[in-house]
Each structure stands twice: as C-alpha cells, then as structure tokens.
Write a structure and sequence with these properties.
2 domains; 8-stranded mixed beta sheet; 15 helices; Rossmann fold; single chain
C-alpha cells in the first residue's frame, strides 16, 4: 500500500494540532508497512524532499501566510496550485493507491490529483467553519470556506472524523449520510509529552510560588475556545482562595480582548499570557500546573484534555462536543462543567483546587484512561479504510 497524504502543515512546520496529527498518523502507518508520502509546505531552509522517521516528505516552498483573512484565502489558492504541480510530478514517479487530505486547506489539490490518477480520495475533517463560527457563514470569507468544505465532503470517496460528535456535525451541516463517515479518534503518545525543562520547580517559580496553585489554559485564543468564560470563572475563585495563579499558553485573534478582560476582572497581577508556546514549554507546563481548564464552546475532539491527562495534570472541561468522548462523565479521569456556564466552571474549579485528594484521583485515573487512545490503533483503523477504498472505489479518471 502506497499513500499520498496532503497537509498544509507537517513538522517542523507547525500551525496547530493538525500537523502533529498527520505526523503521528504517518509514522505509525509506516510501522504498519504502508509506504507514506506527505505533500506539504516547505518552511525556512527545509529540504524539498527528505525521509523523516520512515515518512517521505515532499515540500513546496511558500512565503509566510498573511494575517489578513481575505489575503489568506487567496494564498491558500496559490498554495494548492503549487502543490498540484509537484503532486502531478510525484504521480509520475510513484503509483499511489489512495490520496488522503486533511481539512479544506488542501482540498483542491487532493481532488485534482485523485481524479487525475483515478484513485480514491479520503478526507479527514478536523473542524468546520460552520462550527468555528456557530453557524455564521453567510459572509465572505466564511461563506467561501464553508462552500469548499461542502464540496470536499460531497466529492470525496470517504470521510474520517475524530469523534462521533464531529460525524453527526458533518452529516447535519453538509447533508451527508453518516454511513459515509468513519470515526477514528485521535491518539496520544505519552513519550511525546516528556518535559524538556530539566528544572520543573524553577519553571514553576516563574509563574507561581510553592504555596500557590497554578491553573493552566492552552489553545488558540479565539472565541470558540471559550477562554473568556474561564476568566469569568477564575476571578471569583482567586478572590476567595487568594493563592491562585494562572497561565494562558497560546495566541489568536481574541488575545487583545482577553487581556483587556483580565484587567477588568482584576486578574492581571495573578497571571501570565505567554503567547505562542512551543511543545517543550507546553509539555513542561502540564507537569507543574494543579489543573488544566478546557472551556471550549466548539470542540471537535479535545486533544489538550488528552495531553493534560497523559501528563498527570487534572483537567476540567466543558461538557460539549468531542470532549464528552475524551473525558468520561463519571468524574473519574476528569471533571466536566455545563458548557458556556462560567458559574458552573467556577464551582468545579474551586472544588478541584481545594481538594488534593480529588486531584490525586484524577491524575491516577486520567493516566490510565488515556491508554485507550493509542496511535498504533489509529493507524490500523485508517489503513483499514484505505484498503476498503482501494478495493471498492472505481477509477475516478
């Protein structure tokens, strides 16, 4: 089996969780005997072609993508055109059995290549524009992205989502039969989460003193991640308990407003906005925090919760989306609160901060729970989809 995976990011070029997903999937597919070629962007001085951990990576050089959303949409079109040119060259060198693309950003090149070589096209939908904007996709550029996603899932020979929630969401939003969608949850590898920092107490001292409790929030600072709810919940907890500090690791369009909100709530002297945080720092922060909050309004899966549990950090998550499938409802491996309800989060957060016994139980149960989310199983299930498509899908030529 030889597969062409297409993704707009692949390590060391990382914009978010998608690149990490494609990397772990690719490397574990190689261990299953699949010849994996990844077509992606080329950043900095990276080679145009190399083998990384058994995966053959082919890169297209692109300038840094613009921050303006309208310019970004045009940039994506150019990226697809450049990728398509290289992809067609690769198809002359290699006979691919399946083309597997990730999200709307590379849908155009994936469809063109799969049609050109008469091979099945598989799409993994990590999130949707409809979900990110709570259904407000009437205006450009959201309307454009939404239309690309609709065409993508309608035209693809198979669709993968990372949760049952996302399967139902994609089926409902795009009018797709759930029978065409396969659910394969993300994995986590605790070995990837080892802290790089040799002095964890020293790192912790940058954000909190030994007698203070540290609350961690991780992710893109955008509305749908719900960090404004977390700040609303945190302020009264800080006032009552006093010895609480917080760290926000991430950046995004909502960052200026979240900082203003923090000042309004009197939280500025109690916490730190770190901005973009590399994996080395992030993995270390999980180890020194008393709790990690995942307050999402829209969450296709909930990888931060999984990483926190694997790192021994208790997590408190919104009862919504894919988080329901990551954190059990029984309160053993993590705690849930009613989505969009900062008062509910306030109560749960205070409970876990003052109760050391509960935190210890969450750590022990959480590290056991995450063993269910293994990348080898993700790869085997994905390979099964490849084999089914390759054997049943007629030529697209």
């Amino acid at each position: 089996m030889r597969v062409l995976l297409i993704s707009w990011e692949y390590p060391p070029v990382i914009e978010g969780g998608l690149g990490r997903h494609v990397r772990k999937l690719s490397e574990n597919l190689v261990r299953e005997g699949v010849e994996v070629h990844v077509l992606t962007r080329r950043g900095g001085r990276l080679p145009a072609e190399e083998v990384r951990h058994g995966v053959v990576v082919h890169r297209v050089r692109e300038p840094p993508f613009p921050k303006d959303v309208n310019a970004f949409v045009r940039w994506v079109d150019h990226m697809n055109a450049d990728m398509c040119e290289l992809a067609l060259e690769l198809c002359e060198r290699f006979d691919f059995d399946v083309v597997h693309s990730h999200d709307w950003l590379v849908a155009s090149v994936a469809e063109t290549v799969a049609s050109g070589i008469g091979r099945p096209w598989l799409v993994t939908v990590h999130a949707t524009e409809y979900g990110r904007h709570q259904g407000w996709v009437q205006n450009h550029p959201q309307s454009h992205i939404h239309a690309v996603e609709r065409r993508m899932v309608k035209r693809a020979d198979g669709v993968i989502t990372c949760s049952q929630y996302m399967r139902d969401h994609v089926a409902s939003v795009f009018g797709l039969s759930t029978s065409r969608i396969t659910v394969i949850q993300n994995g986590v590898d605790a070995r990837d989460l080892e802290p790089v920092c040799d002095d964890l107490p020293g790192l912790r001292s940058r954000f909190a003193s030994p007698d203070q409790r540290l609350v961690l929030m991780v992710g893109r600072l955008v509305y749908e991640k719900g960090f404004h709810l977390a700040l609303d919940a945190l302020a009264p907890v800080v006032r009552r308990l006093g010895d609480v500090r917080f760290v926000v690791a991430g950046t995004g369009t909502a960052e200026p407003e979240l900082k203003r909100q923090s000042r309004r709530l009197g939280l500025s002297r109690h916490g730190t906005f770190l901005g973009w945080t590399g994996d080395d720092m992030l993995h270390s922060l999980y180890r020194v925090a008393q709790v990690c909050i995942v307050p999402s309004i829209y969450e296709p899966f909930g990888l931060v919760a999984l990483e926190a549990m694997a790192s021994g950090c208790p997590c408190v998550v919104a009862d919504t989306g894919g988080l329901r499938e990551v954190v059990p409802a029984d309160g053993t491996a993590g705690l849930r609160f009613r989505s969009r309800d900062s008062d509910a989060l306030e109560r749960v957060l205070e409970q876990v901060l003052i109760d050391e016994e509960t935190r210890a139980q969450l750590v022990a149960e959480g590290q056991e729970h995450v063993l269910r989310f293994g990348w080898p199983d993700v790869a085997r299930r994905t390979l099964s989809v490849y084999e089914t498509l390759a054997s049943k899908t007629p030529s697209r030529a």
